[in-house]
Amino acid sequence: MSLYYEAAAVLTNAEKVGGSLKSRIYKRTDLKSSPAQLFALISEASKWSIVLKDVIERCRLLGEERKLTPLLALLLTHDLLLSKNGVAAPANHFLKLAISRHKARLSAEFTKVRIKGGYVTLEAFKEAIVAGVFNPGQEDLPKKVRHPRWVRINTVNTTCAEQLSTTFAGYARASKLAAVLSASGSARIYFQDPNIPNLLAFPPDIDLSTSPAYIKGNIIFQDKASCFPAYLLNVTPEDGDVIDGCAAPGNKTTHLAAIISDQDGPARGQTVIAFERDKVRTGTLQKMVKLASADRIVLVKGGADFLVASPDSEEFSKVGAILLDPSCSGSGIVGRDDTMRMRLPDPSSGTKTISHTSKGKKRKRDKDTNGVSERNTTLDLDLDDSAAEETPVKGKLAERLTALSAFQLRILTHAMRFPKARKITYSTCSVHFKENEGVVFRALASQVAKERGWAILKREHQVDGLKRWERRGIWDSTAFGEDSLLAQEQKAEVCEACIRCEKGTADGTMGFFVAAFVRDDGSDQTAPVSNGNSDGEDEDEWKGFSDEDDRAANTKSREAMRRGSRRSKKKRRKNAQGK
Ligand SMILES: C[S@@+](CC[C@H](N)C(=O)[O-])C[C@H]1O[C@@H](n2cnc3c(N)ncnc32)[C@H](O)[C@@H]1O
């Protein structure tokens, strides 16, 4: 099979293989072309598709070349007009002949678009395409806010100071994130994040993927928002072991390991127990843990469902903190720079004759596209594994959110059953109330939360960098019905404790949500708590607290926080004396 047929097959993904574009290419064992060449062709053709789609449509290429699918036409036109070596096929190959006979017209249309866009040279045009600033017909739209390249320094095997004096030696420190956002990829400039320790921002187009620091796992590409959960969990040596209940690909797992290894004094044998249900994603997790040199701190439980882990098992008897970042709708990550949109030429734009051609021929093209519908004029490609969050539930949005939030609540209330656990963070990369604050309110109202004394970690008790973060939770009065009996005071308190990030803002983050739960040492650990089988009870649509629940929850929460606050004051005094 030629390079172009293989690229089209990867893109149409008839076998519905999950994961990023890169992992789909590298996983295939039946390719004749080199995976690197395939990836380069697809990503370059995607970048140029905003131009090439129009060029192909204006030349009515698909009308004249009936055997070319929109995907093949795009890939071939890209190489014909933009690849140094032209179309990678023998001179008499059917595909080469089919595209080459249109070269003059395609080149002329391409040049017209370039000149109309005001680009005097091909070089200038290329720069605009790479920077993503060529947006024909949308000049009046507000300029898209760019997304920085966030780099977390992996303190398991290096320090921020070491990386600044080696990998980033000669880079100037910017005083504002905006300076980094507007800089070109070649600018040697960075911004030190004020909220998350050991996190740096670089210009969006910077390519650090070939730097020795990246290859050695000294630096990890991780969105700022995705660093919130491990930091908010604020693991200390007293917490003992930590569970990451939904770990792959492992950004937060390795962040937990970095925080543990960064603590003053020895890590006292603390282990991060990382659950991952999916076997393929377990492989990615294992690789990431190894690359981050975190394998002495992290124990990967691959192909293991956190929901069936028994809280009372001896294995988890020292687990004091749990991080939960379950599967979600992923609505917060759309539009990230790691997602690329490929625009395909519309086949009906070929010629007027196309709609009158024989049905047989039309069906042939449908078949060739292997399930990418002829009407499907865009393809969204996930370029980066670290950005790929799974969205396993299909169907209409409302149904998906109901199913996902039921699962999320179940996993959160399961975590609340671990007898020694004192801290939990719950996060999603979703922007929907139902998956975020909705789950938090329902979890707080659950039987297990009440019996075990779980409360929300209020803003004033959060780690410094997140206490200062201004975007907080929201309340959706329609979500639980107007008759929700929750007191205004408690709604406000819980929303203020929840943390949100919004995509497309000057903060440079993806859309994200995180909240933390705590419980105090004095709570009744041995109280009879309903076991995992009663989860259905927690998943019932929540109708709001009753007046009595409300008062009880408020009192308990206030007591828990007072005790927590006394304990942390005591701890701070102890620490201060120790220094
Ligand atoms: C949103 S992703 C986690 C991303 C990860 N925390 C990170 O920062 O790299 C959710 C992951 O949880 C896994 N998962 C979902 N349900 C699970 C369960 N019940 N037990 C263990 N893993 C689960 C999914 O397979 C998926 O890999």
UniProtKB/TrEMBL annotation:
It holds the Pfam family NSUN5_fdxn-like. GO terms for molecular function: RNA binding; RNA methyltransferase activity. Residues 335-344, 542-562 have a biased composition (Basic and acidic residues). The keyword Lipoprotein does not apply. The keyword Methyltransferase applies. Residues 563-579 have a biased composition (Basic residues). Residues 139-520 form the SAM-dependent MTase RsmB/NOP-type domain. The active site is at C429 (nucleophile). S-adenosyl-L-methionine binds at C246, A247, A248, P249, G250, N251, K252, E276, D325. GO terms for biological process: rRNA base methylation. PANTHER family: 28S RRNA (CYTOSINE-C(5))-METHYLTRANSFERASE, NOP2 YEAST -RELATED NOL1/NOP2/FMU SUN DOMAIN-CONTAINING. Belongs to the class I-like SAM-binding methyltransferase superfamily. RsmB/NOP family. This is S-adenosyl-L-methionine-dependent methyltransferase. It comes from Trematosphaeria pertusa.
